[in-house]
Amino acid sequence: MCIGRQWDKLTKSFVKEGRDKGKATDLTKQTRLFFDDDGSTLWITFINRRLYWGHLDKSAPTPHEDGDGVWRTVVDGWRSNDRNGEPLTMDHLAGSLTKITGFRGTSCNVDMAEYLIRRINGKKSPEVERAVVALKNMKSCA
Predict the structure, then answer these.
(1) 53, 112: one domain
(2) Mean per-residue pLDDT for 17-30?
(3) What is the pTM of this model?
(4) Which of 23, 79, 120, 123 is the most buried (most CB within 10 A)?
(5) What is the mean pLDDT of residues 91-111?
(6) Per-residue pLDDT tens for 31-49?
(7) What distance in Å separates the CA atoms of residue 49 and residue 70, rounded to the nearest whole number?
(8) Residues 43 and 91 in one domain
(9) DSSP string for the chain
(10) Within 13 Å of residue 81, how many CA atoms lie on the same side as its CB?
(11) Alpha-carbon gap, residue 56 to 105, rounded angstroms
(12) Are 59 and 72 in contact (CB under 8 A)?
């Protein structure tokens, strides 16, 4: 159904499995995001208290050899460091981002997208940058 882009049929199959219409629609939307991604979506996950990130290859999903499901390649593999090589550990990320570890699904929107992208790019928040400059200025006056 997914490879054939039969999204209405997929939603109906979720309902037949006992899910209500709203949940079935949500599951279909999550699945569709994975199948329709053209490589422009930033995908993240948390494993062992680290944030991993990447973009899917533009090629179509490939069926597993056993016929059970599909997979897509992440360009350059999953990464758990920022662009400066610093590890993206949960204890150094905002709680408002790490709270999504409680989400039990395939995909969800990240409320803190700007923060996430800034962290992946190895940039500090404007508040932290101002504090670093202030501290440096204060030390130079001593």
Answers:
(1) yes
(2) 94
(3) 0.80
(4) 120
(5) 80
(6) 999 999 999 999 999 999 9
(7) 26
(8) yes
(9) -TTTT-HHHHHHHHHHTT--HHHHHHHHHHHHHHHH--S-SEEEEEETTEEEEEEB-SSPPEE-TTSS-EE-PBTT--B-B-TTS-B-BGGGS-HHHHGGGG--SS----TTHHHHHHHHTTPPPHHHHHHHHHHHHHHHH-
(10) 5
(11) 18
(12) yes
Taking residue 23's Cβ as centre, other Cβ atoms within 10 Å add up to: 13
- Reference 15, options 7, 24, 6; nearest CA is 24
What pLDDT shows up at residue 124? 78
CA 93 to chain centre: 14
Confidence of residue 106 (pLDDT cuts 50, 70, 90): low
What's the number of domains the chain is made of?
A: 2
Residue 40 and residue 57 in contact, taking contact as beta carbons nearer than 8 Å:
no
Same-domain pairing of 55 and 109: yes
Regarding whether 74 and 10 lie in a shared domain, the answer is no
First and final CA of the chain: distance in angstroms?
A: 69
Full residue range of the structural domain in which residue 5 is found: 1-36
- 110: its two tokens: 């990240």
Query: If we measure between CA atoms, which residue out of 43, 106, 38 comes closest to residue 80?
Result: 43
